[in-house]
Amino acid sequence: MRRPILIACALLALASCSSAPAPAKPQARPTYDLPARPVRVNEVPIHAAPVNDGDARFQVIGLQTGQASLSGSHAEWPAKGQFITVRVVVENPGRSTSRFDARRQRLVTADGRTHPISDTAQITKRQPVEIPVGAGVRLEMDLWFDIPKDAKPTAVKLYGDPPIGYPSTDGAQVALK
User: Residues of the signal sequence (predicted)?
Assistant: First the structure.
C-alpha cells in the first residue's frame, strides 16, 4: 500500500517543480506609419470610426459646408443652394473587386431629408462617380452634394457594393460632427 502513495507523492512533487510555460500573449498586428496631413482649407476634420456596408469599409474624414460655387479644371459652377463636400476613405477589405457608386450615397439634413450627390459637381471636380475598387485597395475622395442654402447636414449614408447574391444593402450612417 505504501508504494502507490509514494508514487503519487513523487509525481505530485515533480509536477509542482516543473512549471508549464505561460500561455503566449497575442501579438499586436503591426501598423503602417502614415504621415499626418493638414486638413484642407475650409474643411472641418471628422473623427468617425470606420463603418462597413456590403463589400466596402468607409471612413468619413472631412466636411466642407456653405460653398456658393466650385471651380474645376475646366469650369466654374454656382450651387443651386450650397455645396457640401464630404471627404471619405473607401476601402475594399475583400479578396474580389467591388464597385463604388457615388450616386448611391446620400447626405442627410437636420429635417430628415436625404440628398443625392450632384453629378455636375462630382464631374467638374474630377471625382469618381463609379469606379472599381480592387481587393485590398483604399481610395480617398470627395462626395459633392448641392442642398438647399438653409439646410444643415447632419449625417451621410454610405452604401457599398452588395455582396454576390444580394440585390442591395441597408447602408451605414455616419454623423457629421
Answer: 1-24
Measured in degrees and rounded to the nearest 5, phi and psi for residue 14 equal -65, -40
Cell of 66: 456653405
pTM here is 0.82
Q: Which pLDDT tens digit goes with each residue over 48-74?
A: 999 999 999 999 999 999 999 999 888
- For residue 171, what is its C-alpha cell? 447602408
Strand partners, 49: none
Q: Look-up: residue for cell 447626405? A: 107
Extended strands (E) in the chain: 44-45, 51-53, 56-71, 76-91, 98-101, 106-109, 114-116, 130-133, 138-147, 153-158, 172-175
Domains of the chain: 51-164 (2.60.40.1240)
